[in-house]
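Hi support team,

I'm filing this because I wasn't sure whether my run with iron/sulfur cluster finished correctly. The job status page said complete, but I'd like someone to confirm that the output block is well-formed before I use it downstream. Pasting the exact inputs I used:
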Amino acid sequence: MPGRSCGSCTACCRVLEIRALDKPAGILCRHNTGRACGIYAERPEACVQWHCLWRRIAALPDALRPDRSGVVFGLERRHPGEGAPEGACIVGRAPDGEEAFARWEAVEAFAMFVREGSLPVWKAYARHAILMNPSR
Ligand code: SF4
Ligand code: SF4
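And here is everything the job wrote out:
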């Protein structure tokens, strides 16, 4: 989205798996300085290409920026549920705990994605994953 930038958010540097760096999901990248990427110009292609949905969708409010809301929404290729099939889906992750899902901006964002209905929508935290539109 034009005009929307990460600012001091670095949530995806923790949430994403970056295979080129052998970085597992859920662990802060060793190149993260706390406020930015320490190898920004040479960061892996996976980091260059990836933007969370807050960066992509104008309808999501400023309050939903992941470092403010505690929830990172992303378009993912693999369903997070155990035994769930491969395929595009929307995942809202709360890396610091499920309490973040109770905030109004997260509640409204999940409702918007479920209403739109074109993809499965997952709520993920710790080792849990909940499908929000089970009819899919
Ligand atoms: S989670 Fe989104 S807003 Fe935060 S650093 Fe990553 S792309 Fe930027
Ligand atoms: S290389 Fe940079 S952008 Fe990529 S995860 Fe690490 S700190 Fe974040």
